[in-house]
Amino acid sequence: MHIPVVVCVLICLVLSIRPVAAQPGPAQESAITAQRSLQLFTVLCALYAAGFEWDVALANPHPLHVQLRREMSVLKGPAVEALREFYRTHRTNDPAITLSRYVSYALVTGPPPKFDYLLTLEQLPPDVRTLDGLAPVLANFFQEAAIAQRWQQVAGEYLREISRLQGPLSDIVFRTTGYLREVVDQTSPRQFTVYVELLVGAKTNLRNYGDRYSVVLSPGKDLPIEDIRHGFLHFLLDPLPYRYRNAVERLRPLLSYATRAPRFQAEYREQFPAYVVECLVRAVELRMRNAGTVAEVEALNAADADGYVLVRPFVDGLRVYETAEPAMTFYFPDLLRRINLSTEAARLEKVQFAPAQDARPTLAEAVVQVSETERMLAAAESLIADRRPQDAAELFHEVLQKEPANPRALYGAGMAAVLLRNVEQAKALFQQVITGAGPAQQPATDPRWVAWSHVYLGRIYDVEGKRELAVTEFQAALAVENAPENVLAAARRGLERGYRPGQPEAKP
After folding, report:
1. 439: helix, strand or coil
2. Suppose 239 and one of 297, 318, 373, 379 were both cysteines; which one would form an S-S bond, judging by CB atoms 3.0 to 4.6 Å apart?
3. CA distance linking residue 70 with residue 116, whole number of Å
4. 136: Cβ–Cβ under 8 A, 6 or more apart, which residues?
5. CB atoms closer than 10 angstroms to residue 329
6. Is the pLDDT of residue 44 over 60?
7. Cα(110)–Cα(208) distance, integer angstroms
8. How far is 441 from 447, CA to CA, in rounded Å?
């Protein structure tokens, strides 16, 4: 069957990425990036200027931490007073919750001076919604307290701490991707970032919003390697249960045993795929530690007692996986099929679950807050890379049924439409990313999806011979505020010489 040129062109653009089973090399090291964030720095400066007082396990604070907190506490001015009033009216009785809310807020806001949300109001996590109205207060504080100048003054200390992280982070990527036999797609929109923030104290914060996985920490003498690795494993494995939903659903009867555990996390009742991947992450961690037979038995008993009843059969399956060749992306269905429901049910009838009062909150439990929507989107994007556009389209449209204006789902559905040879539908979907969809008709707030949608529309129009429309789209992409540099480069090429099939590409 003859395929239209425009479809052939866009298929080449979309399908340049495919996960393969290979040992990681130097290119893998950028799978985790370490950086600092002006938004985080500003929000935490504001928090301490407002009167926040709490040092969680901060026995040896960084000298700069002490200095900045002292400077913030004595600030005066109308913006500072407004900030303190906002803090008083939004404070909680638990300082841990307070700090967590402000960290979450910083991770979903754009740069100063506006501090606009990067997500739609519907997508904002509940803890961030409690701070709605902070943006204008924060913007005034940013100017009055000369945060930009302070940011430059402390750059050297932050960069030194970031440099200290590079070796350990590279080791995490090398060992983890090596065990899973995965190669991380460097051009994927999914990101795993470690933010170094000396003001955050000793508590490690892990978040996932959209396609961004973030760890916020203040490097101390002992780096939280286990916490970072746990988050990175989720980054790698979260999409799998949605790629193989039928195989996962076969295990759902075992959930009834897990829910008997007093420590069972309530959100897992409605997010069984999230429960499966959490158990898998814990099993992989256990096998990677190679701690010995006694330690492994103790860890498996503890997992059962806490309600993570799939960890044990996953560990058994991983012993076989370690002698196999495929990457986990492709082996996962076999791992699921090896679990015998009857055998596990008989075993779980005898398990003694631990009492609830002994439960200790961990970073691992924070990771599972990743929404079902985000896992579905990540899985759909990996299906695009695996040349399974129909399966991807079904996942994208399932998300759109619940969230008609989700820009990431609209964009992904547009790419799937291209692969399914429905270019007109692709154009309509890209346009909805730009102008908004659903009852609210709210355009996308993430500049990546808006800018790339303009670029792809421009390319389609170029191939169709509609050069004037193509130029308009490329110019629109260049006008998107805070668009990534690779999108801008693609738009400039489109303007300078037009889009030609087969030319080298930047990827979203």
Report:
1. coil
2. 379
3. 28
4. none
5. 23
6. yes
7. 16
8. 17
Q: Got the DSSP string for 121-157?
A: GGGS-HHHHTTTTHHHHHHHHHHHTTHHHHHHHTHHH
Contact 311, 222 (CB under 8 A): no
| 3-state secondary structure (DSSP) of residue 35 | strand
Token pair belonging to 370: 């990743």
Q: What is the pTM of this model?
A: 0.75
Q: Report how far residue 343's alpha carbon sits from residue 351's, in angstroms, rounded to the nearest whole number.
A: 13
DSSP H helical ranges for 389-503: 389-402, 407-419, 423-435, 447-463, 467-478, 485-497
Identify residue 247 by its one-letter amino acid code. A
- The secondary structure of the chain in percent helix, strand, coil, rounded to multiples of 5, reads 60, 5, 35
Segment 181-213, tens digit of pLDDT? 998 877 677 889 999 999 988 788 888 887 789
Is the model more confident about 443 or about 347?
Answer: 347
The answer, yes or no, to whether the previous bond of 113 is cis (omega within 30 of 0) is yes
**What is residue 489's three-state secondary structure?**
helix
Q: What is the pLDDT of residue 305?
A: 93
According to DSSP, the β-strands at 205-209 and 212-217 are antiparallel
Q: Which domains does the chain have, with CATH numbers?
A: 38-153 (no CATH), 239-355 (no CATH), 387-497 (1.25.40.10)
Q: Which amino acid is at 439?
A: P
The C-alpha angle with vertex 488 and arms to 26 and 460, in degrees rounded to 5, equals 105
The mean pLDDT value for 217-231 works out to 86
Cα(70)–Cα(51) distance, rounded to whole angstroms? Answer: 11
Question: Does residue 288 or residue 384 have the better pLDDT?
Answer: 288
What's the alpha-carbon Rg for the chain, to the nearest Å? 24
